[in-house]
Amino acid sequence: MVRVLVIDDEPDVLLLCRVNLRHAGHEVLEAGDGEQGIADALERQPDVVVLDLMLPHIDGYDVLRTLRGDDRTSSVPVLILTAKTQQADRRRCLELGADAFITKPFVPDVLGDTIAELASLSDEERAANRTAALEQPGDPSSDRG
Fold first, then answer.
1. What CATH number is attached to the domain comprising 62?
2. What pLDDT sits at residue 138?
């Protein structure tokens, strides 16, 4: 079982993630904004964070920057789940240390599979995947980073 923290301000997205990830056997924690997400990540030590970019109070970029800058969460895999579809957004997320990028609307099985994959990879493997995605010409990542 993977402990997943979902940080998103959309109740429907939280519900969809909760139902599908619990069905897949994962423990699901939820935060409705960036401040709460950071606090929960530091306190509850999830195995994977699912992070929206457009959040109230503190946006997802700043949440990601904070998580990567804290020793307690610097190596926790982060999957970006967002409606932002621009290549620049994907690149910025990868540069800040995100491990995967999925756009909304999303297929629940892809979300679950990506979380399982991230949880199974070492820090070094995830870093190598980020580097490879950033070095690709054109779109720096697929929908799975």
1. 3.40.50.2300
2. 60
What is the domain extent for residue 12?
A: 3-135
For residue 121, CA distances in Å to 21, 68, 86, 111, 124 come to 19, 17, 26, 16, 8
Please check whether residue 94 lies inside any domain of the structure: yes
The answer to whether residue 34 sits within a structural domain is yes
CA pair distance 47, 45, nearest whole angstrom: 7
Q: What is the pLDDT of residue 140?
A: 45
Provide CB contacts within 8 A for 35, sequence distance 6+.
Answer: 57, 58
End-to-end distance of the chain based on CA atoms, in angstroms?
Answer: 22
Collapsing DSSP to helix, strand or coil, 32 comes out as: coil
pLDDT tens for residues 97-106? Answer: 999 999 999 9
6-26 pLDDT tens trace: 999 999 999 999 999 999 999
Distance CA 145, CA 139 (A): 10
Number of domains in the chain: 1
- Strand-pair partners of 29: 5
What size, in residues, is the chain?
145
